[in-house]
Write a structure and sequence with these properties.
Blueprint lengths: L1 E5 L11 H13 L5 E7 L2 H7 L3 E9 L2 E10 L2 E7 L1 H4 L17 H16 L10 E5 L5 H7 L8 E5 L7 E3 L19 E2 L2 E3 H8 L2 E4 L2 H6 L3 H4 L3 H6 L4 E3 L29 H12 L8 E8 L5 H13 L3 E8 L1 H13 L4 E5 L3 H10 L2 E4 L9 H8 L2 E5 L2 H6 L5 H6 L5 E3 L4 H15 L2 H13 L5 H14 L6
Helix pairs in contact: 4-5, 5-6, 10-13, 11-12, 11-17, 14-18
């Protein structure tokens, strides 16, 4: 089976969040299912630098107002199609934001171009390669199924994955004439969304099937609380909606052979975690002792519940815990966490920024990771925590609910518990979860059981890749695969 995947970011070349991890890991996992994937990504500077000299296999003289080439490349086992359009993607900022931290004003054009190029390839524009199906990710590629539906060539099956329904790509209807879609596409059954052009809405309306990144999130987005205005459309398409939990790359995230941590270890013997804890304490300037060390590795935003963490810090320290934070985001939350670190030297520390190597050491050295998200489509840090014996303390929502088994009395008695989960997502709820975590930490045998059970969890892509392959097959003509 041949699949064209289209994504606005892909690990290891360019990453702002979990979307990149999925776009990078799923194609590799699908190989074992007999699925051959080519991934179309924008030619940002980091991507162009990684692929070096590459051959152009398709030329657009005018793609949304500028010339563009599709280059063929391979990086780390990924078959890439890179959309080289310097006017759109050769910029010093990030994939979506300029150096001023604001959205590029022409993001609508940049990602319409990515979608349009993808639709052309899906329609057979590449000599010698015709995909059976196209898989698009988030709002940046939402126009692609619409371009196929309203195009002249027969549309092939399409799957649209929602990684986070909060990001929707809604733009003024004034851009519509430049999108190259027929006039009747600007309708409720097409790309129109409350008087605007909605890129995510367009994909959800026109894709053959919709997936999201956990079964619980697939249920949650059918409600007004989590559906962000799109719950009506999704409720009409419930039979086409599939929740498939993300996996992680268990080769990159493997404490037994991780070059980014102080000492390797495995579930059979976790004693070397102590060396990682000491290295981490030294890096953060924390006291070197055996107090329970909590970490946060997150965007520092309201969605992630970071205001609750800032408000719970004094209690955490009073109970004998320590906290190390890595992340960036809302300036007021950064300031609140910095204030907490100033109030509790040696017990609380924060490093502002994104640091992949440090995040590995934190998973290997922390006793527990706090993830009190208000909503969480899947979440990956709890999966890294399970893999590394860093016990996840999570809110009961989305993918956190699907991947962490709470240490309630029944789960502890049966030896199946892998973490601590709590609800509702309030300050009191988080404080109770922290108290419970510290109480369990002080029972070494119980805590060791939580760690080893977590490390035994299957957090790989294997099961999920099989579910995606099954979904793909269900959309193809019977007998073709």
């Amino acid at each position: 089976m041949k699949v064209l995947s289209v994504a606005s970011e892909i690990f290891p070349l360019v990453k702002t969040g979990g979307l990149a991890d999925v776009a990078g890991a799923l194609p590799l996992a699908l190989k074992a299912q007999g699925v051959e994937t080519k991934t179309l990504v924008p030619g940002y500077p980091a991507v162009m630098a990684a692929i070096g000299t590459a051959q152009s296999i398709l030329r657009f003289e005018d793609l949304m107002g500028s010339p563009a080439d599709v280059l063929k490349a391979s990086v780390g086992g990924l078959d890439l199609l890179v959309l080289e359009a310097p006017a759109l993607f050769d910029r010093p900022g990030g994939p979506y934001l300029g150096t001023d931290g604001k959205d590029y004003p022409d993001n609508w054009r940049r990602f319409a171009a990515l979608s349009k190029a993808g639709a052309e390839i899906a329609g057979g524009a590449l000599a010698g390669w015709q995909p059976d199906l196209v898989h698009v990710h988030d709002w940046q590629t939402g126009l692609l199924p619409a371009y196929m539906l309203y195009g002249e060539k027969p549309a092939i099956p399409s799957v649209m994955t929602i990684h986070n329904i909060a990001f929707q790509g809604n733009f003024s209807a004034a851009i519509f004439p430049e999108l190259g879609l027929p006039a009747h596409a600007l309708a409720m059954e097409g790309v129109e969304y409350y008087g605007m052009v909605g890129y995510l809405k367009a994909g959800l309306q026109t894709a053959w099937a919709i997936s999201t990144v956990s079964p619980s999130y697939a249920e949650e987005i059918l409600t007004p609380e989590f559906g962000m205005g799109l719950e009506g459309l999704l409720n009409r398409r419930t039979l086409d909606l599939h929740g498939i939990v993300n996996g992680i790359d268990t080769d990159v995230w493997n404490p037994a052979v991780d070059p980014l941590i102080e000492r390797d270890y495995s579930a059979a013997d976790t004693s070397a975690r102590r060396a990682n804890k000491r290295a981490m304490e030294a890096q953060f300037g924390l006291d070197q002792d055996d107090a329970p060390l909590f970490c946060v590795i997150s965007r520092l935003t309201w969605q992630k519940g970071m205001d609750l963490v800032a408000d719970a810090v004094d209690d955490l320290v009073a109970l004998g815990g320590k906290l190390a934070v890595l992340g960036s985001g809302d300036e007021a939350l950064v300031a609140a966490l910095r204030d907490a670190a100033a109030r509790h030297p040696g017990r609380v520390a924060i490093t502002v920024g994104y640091n992949e190597p440090l995040s590995h050491l934190m998973q290997a050295g922390s006793d527990a990771i706090l993830i009190p998200s208000r909503f969480e489509p899947c979440g990956l840090t709890q999966l890294y925590g399970l893999r590394y014996g860093c016990v996840p303390v999570v809110s009961r929502t989305g993918g956190l609910n699907d991947t962490v088994i709470d240490a309630n009395p029944a789960a502890l008695a049966s030896g199946s518990a892998t973490g601590i989960s709590f609800g509702p997502v309030t300050l009191d709820g988080l404080k109770r979860a922290i108290r419970r975590s510290i109480r369990l930490y002080r029972e070494p045998d119980t805590w060791a059981s939580l760690q080893t059970q977590g490390m035994a969890s299957d957090v790989s892509w294997d099961k999920s890749a099989a579910l995606y392959a099954k979904l793909y097959s269900s959309l193809l003509p019977k007998g073709s695969h």
